[in-house]
């Protein structure tokens, strides 16, 4: 009989076991081995059967068995011990509490469309989500007061299986929030909090708010699958990245506008301090800035029907009565925007008309639609660009590796026309990964924990033999997992048990193991390794130095090209001649990924440079002593040092993509055959010392640097703290500085087109100038009514090429003189052909920099 519906009933835990409820629902267990051991010890078989999910485990253990466990004093002691440990973790001062920085924010709102905290909360599709999960966990370890905000999807992301002929099939198992480690956000009377946002045609979208506890960090997840909603609106949070543009913008309005409302409700009901900084993790959540502008303009919460301000629900934001520009200045100061994609097609865009349809006066009362639409303006006048809005709503913005920062400065440079690309105010914070989540416990046991401070570990005390034994044990564990999964995958594809004897002998625990697992957009080039199938076969079957290869990854359900790539790999791997050395494992997710990062000797990555913003899977491999074999893209461009792995040479300048693939595939085969293989198989007393040396070097130098705690510390020190200080300044004295800044921008807007440099001359150069000779630059400037203190006039001196383009320029602020001119003496910075110019930029104490507003007047 098939059930009509299903729901989850939580277990009643007898007294001494009661703390297990807290231990199961706080996701800290996902990175705390002793807590996992405790759960496993309650019923090892049930633990394995439920896929290591404590909430399910507690539901699966029979009541009689629970009663028995409650009687066992030793069990009760362990439960009490772990509960006390969690309590200590949640309350003791950590790094943030003793950080020397003044003006750290009391709280930070971190908004992301997906969160990959654990496979038991399947709310992510790939790297972006897993990164967001790692960000929360590292923030928790450091004591950073983050509040995560996202959506709860009824079907997180699809599960992948294969048809017999290797075509990707998608399944969307529905989750029941009651069976997840979540708790409904309720008001003090116990009624669930509902967040409402107005939809067009007088409709209202309501969402309840689930609270997940990620260690110390609360994560709020909005869920529209409730009876209050009309049937189509119930489906707004049905799946991640599904549906059409309409569905997508509803999700983005919900996370942005509704997300801020959820944060307010959470702070009101829990007493948590309100965020002083908002971090927009990728453009999707950018509407959060609009709601914060609205708060400051109308100064009150929105009525419970979502239509217009009301005085009945208490507002947590004071300072009402700002106009749009003043509110914008205030919001920008406290906002950080992180962009994650260097692929123009990856940027979130909507038709302007669609956005106009949704950004109604009911959604955001009192705000001018035209002003809102202008925030997302881009080259195409009919398009609203979420990344452009993100940049306009944030005073601080960054990419996710040094190379990606530079690519982003190029990509968005048009918003700062007239400035050199490297002046574009987009910085970078290189991603990191959460060590306690991704590192095998054997590694931590052997080397100790790098700790939240990411201190470099000396692994020199560990012998080569021990390091090699560690790597070999992790590889063996992976080989078991591969066999289990290959068998399961074939059963799913329709094979029968008797045909599958061969799967017991798939892979070999002593063979060089290479992993390649990632989503399947074209730029990642899943099939580059198949460029020359014979050559790949030769590497796999080499008599002395064989390679075995694990491939995994999901294609977007709508991307048939991606599915065709998967099919090519599957068909190659199905061949009886090679299937013991190459496998495609379906359903890449966190639970599979872990085994790959632990056990692969080599982590392969061959994106089309520079389209990989950062990449984090290679970092997770490095945590475990895996060696990266990668194109120098994303993080690898800055972390490859010649001894921690291999760089696949890129044919960057080659225009013809086919030829470029040929060249790069060839380089890959060459490296595998001549460098990687020999280093792995060259043994003395059974130990490949050269290899182990690289592993040791990776663990000593890379392991501390790839930690998410390093990343979050950078965000705190270089982004959140300055944003909090800027926000405090503009907020003080009833937003006096925000008002001042808005007036300044207004003055600037009116005058700027008429600001002109009327003349430039240079004096003081000796007959034969040498490096260091002082050159006096003088300029006349017509300020069109602006005050001299409103601008900075700069002399720019640098090398010039034939086209008179300045390179490596030195800029020097010129001094305003009594006669109305501007002057500065600049020592000549370079030998050779030198040029100079003069420029006028805005200057205001509450701008993050003079570049920020994208305004510039150049001489000539
Ligand atoms: C780390 C991780 C990713 C992201 O890896 P990339 O190197 O950015 O492709 C994707 N999926 C899972 C399950 C991960 O753990």
UniProtKB/TrEMBL annotation:
Residues annotated as signal peptide: none
GO molecular function: 1,4-alpha-oligoglucan phosphorylase activity
SUPFAM superfamilies: UDP-Glycosyltransferase/glycogen phosphorylase
Keywords: Allosteric enzyme, Carbohydrate metabolism, Glycosyltransferase, Pyridoxal phosphate, Transferase
Reaction equations catalysed: [(1->4)-alpha-D-glucosyl](n) + phosphate = [(1->4)-alpha-D-glucosyl](n-1) + alpha-D-glucose 1-phosphate
Pfam families found in the cross-reference section: DUF3417, Phosphorylase
InterPro entries from the UniProt entry: Agluc_phsphrylas, Glyco_trans_35, Glycogen/Maltodextrin_Phosph, Glycogen_phosphorylase_DUF3417, Pyridoxal_P_attach_site
Aminoacyl-tRNA synthetase is among the record's keywords: no
Annotated EC: 2.4.1.1
Sequence ranges assigned to domain DUF3417 in this UniProt record: 13-121
PROSITE patterns reported for this sequence: PHOSPHORYLASE
Cofactor: pyridoxal 5'-phosphate
NCBIfam families linked to this entry: more_P_ylases (TIGR02094)
Family according to the record: Belongs to the glycogen phosphorylase family.
Function, in words: Phosphorylase is an important allosteric enzyme in carbohydrate metabolism. Enzymes from different sources differ in their regulatory mechanisms and in their natural substrates. However, all known phosphorylases share catalytic and structural properties.
PANTHER family: GLYCOGEN PHOSPHORYLASE
Protein name: glycogen phosphorylase
